[in-house]
Every structure is written in C-alpha cells, then in structure tokens.
Give the backbone structure.
Amino acid sequence: MSQALEVETDRGRTYSVVVGERAVDRLGRELPDPCAAVALVTDSNLARLHRDRVIDALGAGRTVSAFEFPAGEQHKTRRTKERIEDAMLGEGFGRDCTVVALGGGVTTDIAGFVASTYMRGVPWIALPTSLLAAVDASVGGKTGVDTDLGKNLIGAFHQPRAVLIDLELMQTLPGPEVDNGLTEMLKHAVIADASYLRSLVNEADRLRSLDPAVLEIAIARSIEIKGEVVAADTEERDYRQVLNLGHTIGHAIELVSRYRVSHGGAVAAGLAVECEIAARLGLMPGSARKEVVAALERLGLPVAPPAGTDPGELLQATKRDKKGRAGRPRYALPAGIGEMARGERGFAREVPDDVVLSALEEA
Ligand code: GLY
C-alpha cells in the first residue's frame, strides 16, 4: 500500500509526494527528461546503508555519482556545500543534472540548497530517511545551511521535483529521531486538524514502534497539512508563520540546554508552554490546552522544560530567536485544536514578558 499526494506551491506548480514501503523504487520515473546525470548527495552513514539500493532504483542511461559528507549538524555549512559543488563541477555536471538527497534534515537542507544555486538552479528529489525530514524538511522548499551565528541563516526557497518517503529507510530510527517526527506531527494536528490529533493519540503505541501501516497514513496527513500551509504562503509572508508553533520556546530550550535536549523534546515542551501562553491570553480554551498536553504525554513526549531550567534564562534566550524582530520574539499561537490565532502581523505576535514567564513557571 502507498499514499500519493500532490503538493502545490503558490507559483502554481505541484510536485508528487509518495509515502509507502518501496517508494524509492519509483525514483527512475520521477527524474526529469532529459536528465544526463544524477548527483546523489548523502551523508557517510546513509551511503553505507542505502546507496546501492538508490543507485539501482535510478536505473541505467545516465551518469550517477555519489557526493558524501560526514554525518552531523556541524557539517551543515557553506564549506560542505562548496565541496559538493566543486566535486560536481569537477565531474562535469551541467544544467541537465538532478540532485537526489538521501538522508535526514541536514542532507535535505544542504542538497536542496546545492540544487537551488548550481548553474542557477537544477531540479532535486528528496528521499527522507528520518521521520522529521519526511514530515517537515523535505516538503515546503526551505533549503539552507547553518553559520556560527545561527541555524538556517543562509538559504533559499527551492521546491523539490518529487519526495519519495520509503518506510523501509526509516525502520531503524533511534528514539530521539522518533520524538522529533512525532512532535512535528502533533504540531500539524494542533494547527489544522483535531481529528488527526485524536488519531495520533489512539495510535500512539503503533506510531512509536514505527508500524508502517499507521505511519504511512499519519505521514501523509501531516504532509497534506503542511502542503496546504505552504500552498497558501510559500515564502512565509503570513500564514506559513503558523509552522513556527512551539518553536519560539522550543529553540530557547535547545539553546539553554546547549543542545543536550533533542529538537523534538524541546519543541514538544515548547508546544505545551505556548498553549499555556495562548490560554493565558484568552486565545485558546483551557480544555483544549489540557488535551494537547495529554496528547504529548500519550506520545511519550516532554510537556515541560527539563527540571531545574531557569525560566528567566529561557525568557532571555527567546529574545535571541532569529524569527524575532530587534530582540522581540514572536509567537504563533493556537486558538484551539485545529485552528491558529491571527496575530497583529499575520499569524505571529509579540507576547508580554510577564505572560511568558508565568507560563514557564507554571510548566
Ligand atoms: N519548518 C517550518 C517551515 O517549513 O516553514
């Protein structure tokens, strides 16, 4: 069984997303015509595990070269991008090449960014291998790299040509990777679909054990939701801000913990705290906040920053969030489950420090 979706962008283009057990086998069919060469961009760990299967799926008739970089967020840099580009230029890749990204969020972001500027832009296809990359990084066309001054500060919007989510590539994910994906899925449910939230809760055990039948349906629903947001506002002028739900507090928790708390764990706690902020501002009913917290708990995700974290330090850390303006952090807040509140600028709003502090203290 597999799920096939079409994701739209606001430029009127669409691309296919296929979720299923042997989705990678479709790779040859998704290549543009002509496609003289394929640059398979992947990290050293995934190359060892899946490279041959991907090369088989590409089929004959074109040059295929793998460009590997060392695994890890610390390698999501301009330097890595430059090395891949220089290697592609060295092998004579022209405008008629396609970039294929095999990996998690780091690989997807770098490979998409390479594709966005190589010869002023070539097509790319995402083969996500983590749950987070499947439901977030590979859909929506945000590509980029980190710098010493912050994550994802240099990048481009460049939509993929296709996304193939092969559940067999995901069967060995470590726990924090599963947390990262489940948090994002729950966030999509809070943004747009209360019945999706309830089905995540009902299937929590099967989702955590990566049961393919349940995972396939949930991933497809998350992508549909993210796809609708991106179609409405590809370049994040307004509605796409809703995807930041949970992330203002989440990024602060990551920063204060010096990245010892996983991204998913930090955003899960951020989601709980931001629902509390929304309830304190009278945007979200208290019963809806409680239901989100119960859902986080049922999925085995944190609902508060790690014990002993100083709320004042977290508040200061929010002021360094890159989506803030002049040190004033902005929040995307829910109006209920399945509905986001309009802020003073689009869907983002500033929140008084005392409201944030009291929500953090409550958590
Ligand atoms: N990850 C948030 C977005 O794609 O806008």
